[in-house]
Amino acid sequence: MVPFSFAGHELIALKDGALFWPARRALIVADLHLEKASWFAARSGQMLPPYDSQATLTALAALVRTTQAAEIWCLGDSFHDSEGCERLPPEARRMLTDLTSATRFVWITGNHDAALVDHCGGEIMIEAEVDGLVLRHEAEARETRPELSGHFHPKLRLSHRGRNVARRCFVLTQTKLILPAFGALTGGLDAHHPEIIRAVGRRAEALVPLADRLLRFPLVA
Fold it and tell me: What is the 3-state secondary structure (H, E, C) of 179-193?
């Protein structure tokens, strides 16, 4: 795990798509989209493998054990819809309530789960300011305070040795940091996309964490 500096804080971008804040022992994730498969099954009849929530929560629980996190901050769209928590299968619900009871667990609401209510534990907020960092779902272009957000599911697409490669990435400027989607059943928006650049500004770079280093790529819309 390789640390980097953002707004005077030492943070660690994890290859799983999460962010670890050592000073707070805080794990930050975005866009879990829990129960996306069941939403598609109910709304459109499209049958997707119904294991997305359990896979996502298994990965999250593993990171909590690895980092010994005391806090978990979810930056919106944690459920694919505001009723998603009610549809969790029993094992996934148990995994989630284990996490919400063992840590300070905060749900920042997003556009998919704006009406989220407490069925699974944790605190629900529209946004938060923590030690000088604003935590919200979608980056606000006019925000001048240092800001952590999600929403865009950024992915870096590259051509390497004749192959097209897509990797989840973080998008970084001096005052903004967008996290990739952590959910097991989520797509991604090209990190060069004009909507992302419009949200963060033109002096942006993509961060791709590996086990022993952090790769940086300048972004141009």
Answer: CCCCCCCCCCEECCC
Q: What is the pLDDT of residues 156-211, one digit of tens each?
A: 988 767 788 889 999 999 999 999 999 987 889 999 999 999 999 988 999 999 98
- How confident is the model over 124-165, as pLDDT tens digits? 999 999 999 999 999 999 999 999 999 999 999 887 677 888
CA distances from 100 to 68, 83, 121, 130, 133 (A): 14, 18, 6, 19, 22
C-alpha of 69 from chain center: 16
To which residue do tokens 């030690």 refer?
131
